[in-house]
């Protein structure tokens, strides 16, 4: 807060306090010339008259005590502009202390799972329950409460892993994050094969999961040459992909962005850029392991407990 704004806030506070003092003083006494309460003969309930009587002295004194308390409060805590207060209290420091205390309690809960492989953790029902809670609070926003994902967000309950599905691979994805980039190939392919080049590649990619459809398929035949010239570096000759690069397998029936011709055309022509955030700094390593163990349990039910995940 700048000095000018600080002075402004202090002035507003001071004016309000002085205004309250004056108002209590002004209304807390009778003045010469005020009519007596009995002058109108309007009396209710025995002692309630038409004119207001001054407040009782004890009541007025309570107001003054409240104002004194407010002044002390503003001096003790930071309530006067940029003035830090005698106690030097800040909400950030109190929040940090509360967080540290709660984190210490959490660490006691998570300590038994520190450093363990996620496939081992996944065999513990209590650990899976903790992992599910962590998943719902952090991962469900993208992957859904059932972990089945959405367009652009992978399904975590199947056996398809673009970056590898080993325990270490899954844990690395959670701890360090992933960044998958599909380059824009539209202009390159058009320069190589003409205006229909992207459609040719789409036709060929569709045959990778069913090679029999390659026979007498003119568009796929044209697309194969283009695929070998551009796509083979990441997806391989057989289209099986490369988990080291996050390049997906093109021979299965799973399509992260949809399997329509329009979606495939968009992917090839304009590229895709998918980011999985790194959770190490946010969750810490052990909580990340628990979340990863829960994910592992969903795709490996026979190798882990499922009693706490359904």
UniProtKB/TrEMBL annotation:
Annotated source species: Lysobacter soli
NCBIfam families recorded: ccoP
Gene: ccoP
Listed Pfam families: Cytochrome_CBB3, FixP_N
Domain Cytochrome c: 126-209, 218-299
Protein name from the UniProt record: Cbb3-type cytochrome c oxidase subunit
Localization (cell): Cell inner membrane
Known pathway: Energy metabolism; oxidative phosphorylation
Spans traversing the lipid bilayer: 6-25, 58-76
Keyword Electron transport: yes
PROSITE patterns: CYTC
Cofactor note: Binds 2 heme C groups per subunit.
Annotated InterPro entries: CcoP_N (IPR032858), CcoP_N_sf (IPR038414), Cyt_c-like_dom (IPR009056), Cyt_c-like_dom_sf (IPR036909), Cyt_c_oxidase_cbb3_su3 (IPR004678), Cytochrome_c_Oxidase_Subunit (IPR050597)
Chain sites annotated for binding heme c 1: 139, 142-143, 276
Molecular function GO labels: electron transfer activity; heme binding; metal ion binding; oxidoreductase activity
Alphabetical UniProt keywords: Cell inner membrane, Cell membrane, Electron transport, Heme, Hydrogen ion transport, Ion transport, Iron, Membrane, Metal-binding, Oxidoreductase, Repeat, Respiratory chain, Transmembrane, Transmembrane helix, Transport
Binding site for heme c 2: 182, 231, 234-235
Coarse class of the protein's main subcellular location: membrane
Cofactor(s) listed in the protein's UniProt record: heme c
Family statement drawn from the similarity comment of this UniProt entry: Belongs to the CcoP / FixP family.
BP terms from Gene Ontology: oxidative phosphorylation; proton transmembrane transport
SUBUNIT field: Component of the cbb3-type cytochrome c oxidase.
The protein's role, per its UniProt record: C-type cytochrome. Part of the cbb3-type cytochrome c oxidase complex.
GO cellular component: plasma membrane
